[in-house]
## 1
Amino acid sequence: MLKQRHNFFTEWWQAAGVGWFLAVRQIRRASFTTTGLIIFVMTLTFLNLVVVSGILVGLLQGSTDAYVKTYSGDILISTLPKKTYIENSQGIISIAKNLPWTKSLSARYIESGSLEAGYKTRTNFRDDPNTAGGQVVGIDPVAEAETTDLPSKIVEGTYLTKSDTDSILIGANMLKKYLPIDAPGLSLLENVNVGDKVRLTIGGGVTLDARGGSIVTGGGGETKEFTVKGIVKSKTDIDQRIFMLDSSLRPLIGRGDYNVDEIAIRLKPGADPLAAKAALIKAGAGQTARIQTWQESLPKFLKDIQDTFAFLGNVMGSISLVVAAITVFIVIFINAITRRKFIGILKGIGIEGKAIEVAYVIQSIFYAITGIAIGMVIVFFFLKPYFAAHPIDFPFSDGILVAEIPGTFIRALILLIATLIAGYIPAKLVVRQNTLDSILGR
């Protein structure tokens, strides 16, 4: 039994050596144009496997990155179901600040509200007012800037300072010039620019007086005039928010107890959000608030779209993989058919069929490895840095190229295996033919 195994491995080892010799000679003598074309196809196939799925996933990854940087932080603490604010907010903030992983945090007051523009020059009160609704968010501008990337998302005007008690930032999705959509029920502010005065109504909303002459608030809302200091555009949900100082919002919503609605926590680099969440829950913060890592707080629709795009990328990559395998099969098969007489002579002088099969398999591997190597250089040294510096400007995100090394190597391995099989099958079909028929071309 051992002798048979020894003979088997010896035969294959010798076949591999002879096959390597034959493969090297065939590659050297092959047409440069043909070899280059095959490698080009393999490179394109690899890029299709990695880049197409990477771009599709990157579209949502851009949204996710913006969500974490501008809104949730690493940990997001929000109100419990059926609660209007986080009870014992200051106690939770104290616990969070004392965690060894905490870098900074931002406590936010949130209330529904609406903005009205052009009320001073309005003459026809039968027309609909120039209004838009959204969430009014009271922030400490310094703490928010330390926790999120909000200041960098100001596309017009400037960020808030602690002295801007009568100023606000408006999300781009509340302005018609940034969201030029005309849909039933959608109300957007028109002709509003930085420096303009707007009227903010907290809660209740804006309605017309029955006499048609004035604007009143429904549900006991509070109204105050503010100056637009900046426009926020992040391609996330905060583009539907109105930002102002927390010290200005508290009196309007009667929040004298300093209980907030939302707390975003930024952790130190390398900190584990799950460990921080567990520490907060253990300290009792979970009794009066919902504590989530940024992954858990992601909207469900965003997670579903990520999965769908990843699936579509894999489907499109699989199609290109099949095309590449067929291409290699055809090339190797035609090469073997045209050299059938030469293969017959090799068999006639005693060269094992295994060695000839190995030679063609090695050629296939050479094409695949060369194409993959060129593709990896293009992906990691050109495409990925380029998209990181110049994201694709989509309406809902800044798309990047997601290409992680483990996933890329898995795709490369799949392509290599598919190419190996595609090279082996035609070589096997030709080599198995009768030696004399091959020599005589019959």
## 2
Amino acid sequence: MPATKTGAFESRLARVRGRVQGIGYRDACVRRARTQGITGWVRNRMDGSVEVMPQGSAQQLADMCSWLRDGMPAALVDSVEVMDMPPTLQRFDHFERLPTL
């Protein structure tokens, strides 16, 4: 059972910069997160970056953040900025793709 269902969960906010739009990065991110039992969302930003809000255990999030950097061969990631989010943040039920912001 995912950490988000058992009560032990953390949230991050990641901004991925580089060639990460127009190559299926968000869809790959959704597949990876769902496979790993991570909840949250991913969306494109108007500045060309991708923003990701994953929730899960510390290990799940470490694995996901590593994937954001190196997991999709078609992406050319220049940087990944990751911020811890407050533990009071609402829990998401699943991982989804949101509209561009």
## 3
Amino acid sequence: MSTVPKRIASAIINSLKGGVVPRIGLPYIAVGRKAEIDALLHDVDIIADGGASFRFIVGKYGSGKSFLLQIIRSYVMDRNFVVVDADLSPERRLQGTKGQGLATYKELIQNMSTKTRPDGGALPLILDRWLNNVQLEVAAESGLSPTDDRIVKLVEQKIFIVINDLQEMVHGFEFAKLLTIYYNSYVNNDDETKAKVIKWFRGEYATKTDARQELGVNTIITDDNWYEYLKLFAVFLVRAGYSGLLVLIDELVNIYKIPNSITRQYNYEKILTMYNDTLQGKARYLGIIMGGTPQCIEDPRRGVYSYEALKSRLEESRFSTETTKDMLAPIIRLLPLTYEELYVLIEKLAKIHSELFGYESTITQDDMINFIKIEFGRIGANTNITPREVIRDFIEIMNIVYQNPKLSITEILNSQGFEFAKNNLTEEAIHKDFEEFEI
């Protein structure tokens, strides 16, 4: 493994110790999940070809759902995709009576990212890059200088080709009109009007009156129509030179937690609309991935399966088993990482930690194997352990060793905090589980 830059190493260690997924540096610590990643990247190829896809990533807390979403985010940006992502919360839903759906849209657009702007806020850059590229293309085709007044008309003609394509879609007329206003402001160096257009695209106009007075348009993005504008963005982004749009929505459990059953059903109805659109070809160049726990999907009273139309579409067939998962199904269920994968993961973390703090690592292969064995025994049955628990404990050990050089890893592993006696499993039973664990 190559040396990790300190800025990235710091983000990796601090994020993982805090129980969250780092936004950068994921390839340095990625292990396993090859089948899941391959399946999702197959979807990406379909999206780039003008299709659409919808997937659920399902796993319990700490199993790696968010990590997988961020890995895919990183991969698709390298493939020239635009990515928008948001975590649902009590304030952010797919549908609501107090603007919760619009709040999710705002979060998505705020987090709009590209390879050159991976930290979000990419919308103005995308629009300016598109217009600049159109000008350069027209200049190359016509032989005119980019500063020649005659080039403006030719640029307008090329832009209108994109705009006409969008006008055929639902709400496409308003979307196209805003792009025209933005272009005119771009040509005239009118930054104030450009900012107003960006404000509109971000869903920040509260009333139609405000939008009409400032921009001359009679509609705004709302709780009811925000998803239609994501579909418009997907088509526009391809016309602007990108491969497509990927929408990542995590923490689906926050819909499951909604106390009002009618409100929950409205949210599941929105999911059904998205699901049907992508599978029936009503959306183009658009991928949607949602992350949630098994309970928030399968609970028959409050989960996604409580909405019969979704349950009938998503339920696994009787042929799918733990060992023969259908990776082309709408739901991808995350299996626990193997012992070998966890070993590779902590081996990478040990190297990153020592490079970040500038010390020579003394941890051995036996130390790491013993750590994993003890973790499985301490936490309980191996089906209940999650990567998050292993990672946080391992980084804590690395921190203690770094701050107490005279303390060996063996001493820490044999300390009271990691005693086998604290759980119902015996050391003999744990070692039996690891008979096939080879490095």
## 4
Amino acid sequence: MNLQSPAVALAAALRDGRLCPVELLEATLAAIEAQNPALNAVVTLDPTARDQALAAREALRRGEGGPLCGLPVGIKDVTPVAGVRTTYGCPLFTDHVPDTDGPVVARLRAAGAVIVGKTNTPELACGGHTNNPVFGPTRNPWNTDLSPGGSTGGGAAALASGLIALAEGTDMGGSLRIPAAFCGVVGLRPSPGLVPTGPLLGDDLQVSGPMGRTVADVALMLDAIAGDPLPRGRPLGGRAFREVVDIGISEDLRVGWCPDLSGRGVDPSLVAVAEDALARLGVEVIEVDPGLQDDHDTFAVLRGLWMVEQHLPLLDRLELLGPDVAGNIRYGLGLRPEAVARARRARRRMMRSVTRLFEQVDVLATPTVAVPPFPVDSGPPTHIGNTPMRSHIDWVAPTYLVSLLALPALSVPCGLDRRGLPVGLQLVGPRDGEARVLQVGAAVEAVANVGLP
């Protein structure tokens, strides 16, 4: 079976004996050996992967094994995997080997997944371009001169090139959604609390989440990592997320479309591709304005605060960190209590405003990213279209503003731009609305039919 087959197809073939976990792993490792040098997506292999595949084979022979049994999964190199080097893309942790799995990895293992290894990330997952001083840059499988985005860029590139079946990642300002858009795969930022993350308990700014080649793959993985029973019950009358995807959308679905969520601009070619996909859904599309254009400083302040709390043990070694990480931490250290209080108030206002919006529409749609993939060697862009950016992160504003809402958000490929590169559509649902965005995402996926490089 083709390694680029959807994970749901691979899982079915493993379950009925048409595919063996050990053979699938061997094919996966061969593909990594052949293709990864040009991509630099997978940075460390798990030395126990073959033992895991053997255990999965025996579980399947006994008629046991979880929903991901035998599927090769990549873990972002900021998420701990017991016994496997986890560097965070940071020279301070080049030889760091955790003793225990992160909670999301533990759930993947319980579901039978085979942990193949670690995927590349910017240093300490800071930034939308995957490059770090430990492993260097990751390249986009659609065009290796281009960036895969970030910070889960290694996972997205590995998926798009068929090196893994599923990818785990984290998302604070868009780290699952941005690379999904650039690499033509699917990435979900779940509602905070649905999937366990760490190390900050109760953190609702950064989440862990799934990435796959299709919406159904993401739903399959979400069922595994969200746990059983789910914290707030299963969606739509007890159905699993994977089952929900197949239900489809109703004709009375209302999509709220916002071509420029941030007010900082979006490349017109991306808007055109997204609007064409929405037009082919055959549902009501209403142009809306969630009113988030003035909230850029809110994200900057709360991200700065988060960076300080997340990296408290490193405050005496800032000079050893890269400029992006150190700059964000220093910004957070310089915040006054008044600025933090204003940002928290503003965030609550944003949440109330969008809650009212979901009384008028069922899902909010925006372009995932404001720019197409940029050259890997030049780094993040300075312009949106022909307009200079006011802030160096304006190009990811459509995702970071949504992160502040603490709502589920899915990036799904909705077409190709004039260069033949994938375009991502961001679908945002109400609180605990994962089922809704997955259903709409599957419908978009069907009309777009983007495929893989």
